[in-house]
Write a structure and sequence with these properties.
It is a single chain. The chain is an alpha+beta fold. It folds into 3 domains: about 110 residues, Sandwich (Tumour Suppressor Smad4); about 160 residues, Reverse transcriptase/Diguanylate cyclase domain (Alpha-Beta Plaits, 2-Layer Sandwich); about 220 residues, EAL domain (TIM Barrel), CATH 3.20.20.450. About 35% of the residues lie in helices and about 25% in strands. The strands form 5 sheets. Strands 18-19-21-22-23-24-25-26 form an 8-stranded mixed β-barrel, surrounded by 4 helices. The protein starts with 11 loop residues before the first strand and ends in a 5-residue tail after the last helix. The relative contact order is 0.06.
């Protein structure tokens, strides 16, 4: 049956399946195909060893060259896996992008070959018929193996050879470390499960699981050990789940589970407790038991939403609230890496006490226009005035605050105090300027963060365009998809965004146009090397030129000598910050600095 005309402009996809009864040559055009021995499948394979729903073909767009390719998944999109697995070129896989000439085995005597070509022949079997037909090629007496060695395509034709550089990434749907499905594939599963739940009036739940203090694990034991822990947790989660459940890697230290068959209201609690009991068993590292602490958040259809976005958002909020309240600490799921764990707990208590007893204080470092000496902004910097230890540098307590999640409450206090003080200066009739506040990656992950910014701006009555939030590129790369969503939402509020610490080893100029930044801050480490290393001059010069061309504020921090300042001005830099111009000031000193700046400019 001829279903297509020869169209050299259109890429064709073909799968040739050979089972005990039939050899089928099938034109692939639809978005999805189900494969299995059940007669209701899009593609029926005839073998008692095959599963009723053995595999799924998914059509996906190749973003690089605007063409399409097909991916094959073990099982169906409801999470049911096949009994015998799927093998591509002899290697078992959960999901894989098919490439021209791939040999597929369904864990039994059923084999298939996938082809991608611009050439087309009149040998396509219509899969809409109830019973597959044998090929009606010119040579009808081809033996049962000839379809694999002599397919109805010219496989040596140059037009159908696939350039590896034009294909999607091999791990498009799979996490490379744990081999679990990643966010992209999980969303496919979730979308399909919600659609079925709506159609058949059933319940679906998702469960987000987060390993608390995972940064402390990486720091104390090293990243290779951290990776081993993630792999072990992934395996324990897989072993705990029912056949229809799915677990995926959701983030650095987060896993997400899809539970499509929830029959009773208490099912989710029972399943959660069973999962926690399994993953909370100690891991033995170098003969030392490691007990992990977890936080989790769940959402249930349709109580918590009917679409994927709302559903996931509810689970994220539940996870965040669960971490904030430390519910699991009352259930004896404690992180006991080594004696340092107790120190972290003491540090968390001390930081909370410091906030409650007003031991934290903001300092303000001016940002100066090099040519005119005018103040263009201030950066808010936190200090801890400890009653016994004196002033503690943020480099010492901020990392601890991030390990213990205390950075969320500290970061909110910093934002509120910086906005309040800036509005107070404006009410005093002092010059208007932008106030810059550093963000932690954990704040970006907080699903309520944008609302917190809105609330602070409303409380302090500060116009949003006077607030600038600084985030490092490293923090962005940790979760670029989420960061992009959050930063776009902040920019829509009118808040300015600054890429901080540019030039520290993670820098990519492409991110300046990809994300909605209005300011580029060049790292102090670059400035320290400015005089001695010509290559650093080239990097800074390129960054300044690009920033200026994109109409960004370009600020160089850490300026300490006149020689550095002169060179920066020569390179076209317009603003600078550093001890040469002014050290960080208390709010009283900053007020005096602003009063003086009205009468005379800062000497550069």
């Amino acid at each position: 049956m001829n279903t297509h005309e020869n169209d050299p402009q259109q890429n064709r996809h073909l799968i040739v399946i050979e089972d005990q009864k039939y050899r089928q040559t099938i034109s692939l055009e639809e978005e999805t195909y189900s494969i299995g021995r059940h007669t209701k499948n899009s593609i029926v394979i005839h073998s008692q060893q095959a599963s009723r729903r053995h595999g799924t073909l998914m059509k996906r767009k190749n973003r690089r060259n605007n063409t399409y390719s097909y991916w094959i998944i073990d099982g169906d999109l409801d999470g049911n896996k096949s009994r015998n697995g799927i093998y591509i070129n002899g290697e078992q896989c959960l999901i894989k992008e098919l490439k021209n000439g791939d040999l597929i085995n369904f864990g039994c005597e059923v084999n298939a070959t996938y082809y991608e070509s611009y050439e087309w022949f009149n040998t396509v079997t219509d899969i809409t018929k109830n019973k597959p037909q044998q090929l009606t090629n010119d040579s009808s007496e081809v033996d049962s193996q000839s379809v694999l060695s002599n397919p109805p395509l010219d496989v040596n034709c140059e037009s159908q050879l696939v350039n590896p550089k034009d294909t999607l990434e091999a791990q498009e749907y799979q996490d490379t470390l744990t081999k679990l499905p990643n966010r992209i594939l999980f969303k496919e599963y979730l979308f399909n499960s919600l659609k079925n739940a709506k159609q058949y009036h059933t319940s679906v739940a998702i469960l987000l699981l987060d390993i608390n203090h995972f940064k402390a694990i990486n720091k104390n034991w090293g990243y290779p050990v951290g990776d081993k822990i993630l792999v072990e947790v992934a395996q324990r989660l897989k072993s705990t789940l029912r056949g229809s459940d799915i677990v995926a890697r959701w983030g650095d230290d987060e896993f997400i589970l899809l539970l499509p068959k929830i029959n009773h209201g208490d099912d989710i609690e029972k399943i959660t407790q069973r999962i926690l009991k399994n993953v909370s068993q100690p891991l033995i590292l170098s003969e030392t038991p490691l007990y992990l602490e977890y936080s989790f958040g769940c959402a249930v259809y349709s109580k918590d939403g009917e679409d994927s976005h709302t559903f996931l958002q509810k689970a994220e909020i539940a996870l965040f609230n669960h971490k904030k309240k430390a519910i699991l600490s009352n259930k004896k799921h404690h992180l006991t890496i080594d004696p340092k764990a107790s120190k972290l707990l003491k540090a968390k208590t001390a930081l909370k006490q410091a906030l409650n007893q007003q031991e934290l204080e903001l300092y303000y470092q001016p940002q100066i226009k090099i040519k005119t000496g005018e103040i263009s902004g201030f950066e808010a910097l936190v200090r801890w005035n400890h009653p016994d230890l004196g002033q503690i540098n943020p480099q010492k307590f901020i990392p601890i605050a991030e390990q213990t999640d205390s950075i969320l409450m500290i970061g909110e206090w910093i934002l509120r105090e910086a906005c309040r003080q800036t509005k107070a200066w404006q009410d005093m009739g002092l010059p208007n300027f932008i106030i810059s506040v550093n963000l932690s990656p954990l704040q970006i992950k907080d699903p309520n963060f944008v609302n917190i910014i809105k609330q602070i701006l409303q409380e302090t009555r500060l116009d949003s365009h006077w607030l600038e939030l600084e985030i490092t590129e490293k923090a962005i790369l940790a979760n670029s998809e989420l960061s992009h969503q959050v930063l776009q939402a902040l920019r829509q509020l009118g808040v300015h965004l600054s890429m901080d610490d540019f030039g520290t080893g993670y820098s990519c100029l492409n991110h300046l146009s990809k994300f909605p930044f209005s300011t580029l801050k060049i790292s102090q480490s670059c400035i320290q090397e400015l005089i001695d290393k010509p290559e650093t001059i080239a990097i800074i010069s390129a960054a300044i030129a690009l920033g200026n061309s994109l109409d960004l504020r370009v600020i160089v921090e850490g300026v300490e000598t006149h020689k550095q300042l002169d060179l920066l001005q020569h390179l076209g830099c317009r603003e600078a910050q550093g001890y040469l111009l002014s050290q960080p000031l208390t709010n009283i000193e900053a007020t005096q600095f602003l009063n003086l700046s009205q009468d005379s400019k800062v000497s550069c």
